[in-house]
Amino acid sequence: MSEHDFEPIRGLPGNLPAGERLLWQGAPDWWALAQRAFHLRSVAIYFAILIVWRGVSAAQQGASAEGAVQAALWLIPVALLALGLLAGLAALAARTSVYTITTKRVVLRVGMALPKAINIPFTIIENAALRAYSDKTGDVALTLTPPNKIAYLLLWPHARPIKLARPEPTLRAVANGAEVAAILASALQAAQASREATPVTEPSAAAPQGALAPA
Fold first, then answer.
1. 99: which DSSP letter?
2. Which structural domains are found in the chain, ordered by start?
3. Between β-strands 212-214 and 125-132, what pairing exists: parallel, antiparallel or unpaired?
4. What is the pTM assigned to this prediction?
């Protein structure tokens, strides 16, 4: 039994209200997440350079060929441990995350140690941007209408990198990213059309653009 066994609908904090439909659910691809959010490849390259530098430095200081190799090789267990930890964290983040798109909102159920559900109604989504990758995964970032804001640390790693002043919740490393982005764009446009067709007696939140722009 896990802490999510009591969810009425996987990835959601409660049953869907009347009139709201589930359109898509998914999770990050752990390998893509490991490379892009946890920088596994960059760390591997760093250790490779460090190992070579250690061997060359030992040789320049007069060590024999065998001694230079031994001086370099002792870093390998450290590198494997670091890479293993990063890969494990990425796998855990992917396993404990569920992204949901309904006809009215996006929900991120995330958190490795302290699970939480982050509800993002379409009414506060200003824009959605897709960044597609060659492995067909993609990041779908959501720009929120001011003054709406979700803390970067609360979102990470489910946030667009570097956007610290105005964090953007992001469906990261999702398989078939273009397809997911199209589903979201269609839902945003349908929700906007529905609001425009309904008489409004009070000021409402800014309507989402619904268009997908390159990230």
1. E
2. 22-28+97-214 (2.30.29), 35-92 (no CATH)
3. parallel
4. 0.83
